[in-house]
Every structure is written in C-alpha cells, then in structure tokens.
Amino acid sequence: MLAGGEPVDFDALPIARRSSPILRVAVLASGRGSNLQALIDAQRAGTLPVEIVLVASDKAQAPALRRAEDAGIATLALDPKSYASRAAFDADLFARVAGHEPALIVLAGFMRILDPTALAPWVGRIVNIHPSLLPKYRGLHTHRRALEAGDATHGTSVHFVDAELDGGPLLAQAEIPVLAGDTPDLLAERLLVQEHRLLVACVAEIAAGRVALVDSRVRRDGVPLGAPLRLRADGSLA
Ligand code: GRF
Q: In the CATH scheme, what is the homologous superfamily, with its name and number, of domain 10-230?
C-alpha cells in the first residue's frame, strides 16, 4: 500500500492486525449505553468483526453495564470516589482494562476527563464519539449550543483520543440538518441514530485495518486524511 508514494509498514501500525483476526475491543461508558448496544448489535449481526472483551464504567448503576451483562460481556465498575485522585483512578482503570488485552478502547459516553499519564500508552488505540461536528462544541450541551448558535447543521464525530478534551485527530463525522422547531432533545434524538451508524462504521474500519493513527495523523489505507471521513447513506465512510 502506498501513502503519498511512501511504503507503509503495516506491522508498525499501532493496531496490529496480524496477531488476531478479530479485533478485541473494550468499551468505556458512563450511562445509557445505546452506542455500546449498536456495537453489540452489529457484532451479533455479523457486520462488525470484533470481540467486545470488556465494558467498564465509573458508574455501577450505568445501564450500559446491564446491556453488557445481557450480552454476556465481562463488566467492570470502579467508583472514582474510592480513589485519592483522578490519576489514581485512571491508572487503576486502564491497568484493569489492559488485563483484558483489548487492541482498541472505545469511549462511548464515558463522561470523564482522562489523566494524560494513564492515557499515554493507549494513544492511537482509543477513540471517542462526541455529539457535535468537532472542533465545534467540545464538552457538554452540544445540542443546545448548536441551536443557540443558529447552526443550519449539527452532527457527530468520532476521533482518536489525546490529552485534550474532545480533541484528538478526527476520524469521521455524520451531519444532520437542524429543523425548524428543533429542541435540544429532538436534535439529540435524531442525531443518536447517526451516532450509532457512525460508531459502527468507524470501528469496522479500524477492525479491518483500513484506518489507523500513525505519526499523529489519521490514515486510511495508508493515506493521511485531508478531512474527516463522512458517513454515507449506506452506512459506509467516504
Ligand atoms: C452520546 O451522545 C455520545 O456521543 C456522548 O454521550 C452520549 C452517550 O450515549 N459522548 P449512550 O450512553 O451511548 O446512549
């Protein structure tokens, strides 16, 4: 495969594809877990060749954990209040996650800022889904902020995670129109459908070894992206 004329050493990519035919995925989620469910459903339908090896949460009551249990997936709940610091919590969380040997970590509604030291070994192997067209509206209340700004379109982004909140190189986005009469809840509800499709498409591309973060740049088939991939109507990325 050629990247701008340079040969790409796929063995050197952060997510090695040769060790296992099925990508081992850990999902971190704090709440409802509908994005997790989308991954579970796609995996079960045979459209997403991954094994979800763990679902971990900072909330013992998170519905995401119940969804994982129902699917027969190992779960882990850790209470941040039992730790002396964010760094201590994140160090333990990531050490336990590592014990399940995931090749990829997916943040699917994991509502915590990550400690840079705990995160560092995972950079390139951890992605997040965020409900805005990043770099617009990092953080919370993205739907309300898009409405208040009078945006004509809204959307969702999947990005590789770095130490910056909702920062990190963008992998792909899905866009929806803002409609007359939209409220934050209505917008969120419509966008969630696209979040599920986008996340499944992105994890599928990573699992297929097509997309990877190399030298701080997202590459697809070895070629650095000039812009985030877009979700097409058929669920593929272009
Ligand atoms: C989603 O909107 C996701 O983009 C954001 O948190 C929400 C999680 O929803 N990061 P769910 O728990 O996956 O249903």
A: Formyl transferase, N-terminal domain (3.40.50.170)
